[in-house]
Specification:
80% helix; 9 helices
Length: 211
């Protein structure tokens, strides 16, 4: 009996530490099933097995919960892409090749991330603040990391100076097309992602690298 009493505080601490993740998982299930507009914190709380008040302990409101959910899905990948930049000592072409390869393998092919994009496209006009927050907290850091890699190449004389340096959206635009393609056509018009990646990278390097 003594051993049971001694382990209970640890169990409670462990469950408390796991609770935010459980809420985020429940949030994804509800958002993806019902959309942002009709999903309520009450339904998320019910799915997570907590009270609505518990959600407010960790998240300010539904918008904060949604953005936190997206951050949870992407933070690991973003950290690895940044680490690639910080530790890479080879050419910028090799750096971009490694970063884009990772992005395709772990981000482009991530169905959960694509579901979030689908929700944002559907809800952006009705909830512009949500779209703005997604841009500021998720998309802008991605664009900044790409600009960082491109500027590295310019500084080393490996990438020519052009308007592309200031508009990294042009470089990643084919990824947006992949999302739309897979959302619209799925298996009806299958896309060879390996061939698409090779073509995308070839276009990027040919457009950026100094001749």
């Amino acid at each position: 009996m003594t051993d049971m009493v001694e382990t209970r505080p640890d169990t409670r601490r462990r469950r408390k530490a796991e609770r935010p993740q459980e809420i985020l998982e429940a949030a994804f299930a509800e958002f993806s099933r019902n959309g942002y507009a009709t999903t309520t914190l009450e339904r998320i709380a019910e799915r997570a097995g907590v009270t609505k008040g518990t959600i407010y302990v960790y998240f300010e409101n539904k918008e904060h919960l949604f953005i936190s959910m997206v951050q949870e899905f992407t933070k690991g990948a973003q950290e690895i892409v940044q680490e690639m930049y910080d530790t890479h000592d080879g050419s910028t072409a090799d750096l971009l090749r490694a970063q884009f390869s990772f992005i395709y393998q772990h981000i482009v092919e991530d169905r959960r991330r694509r579901e979030v994009v689908r929700m944002l496209i559907a809800e952006a006009s009705r909830f512009p603040k949500l779209a703005d927050r997604y841009f500021d907290e998720i998309l802008r850091p991605c664009l900044d990391r790409l600009k960082q890699a491109i500027q590295r190449g310019v500084d080393r004389g490996e990438i020519r100076k052009s308007s592309i340096v200031d508009l990294p959206q042009v470089v990643i635009a084919p990824i947006a097309l992949v999302d739309l393609w897979l959302m619209m056509f799925d298996n009806r018009q299958p896309l060879d992602l390996k061939a698409y990646f090779d073509a995308h990278l070839e276009m990027v390097l040919n457009g950026l690298l100094a001749k």
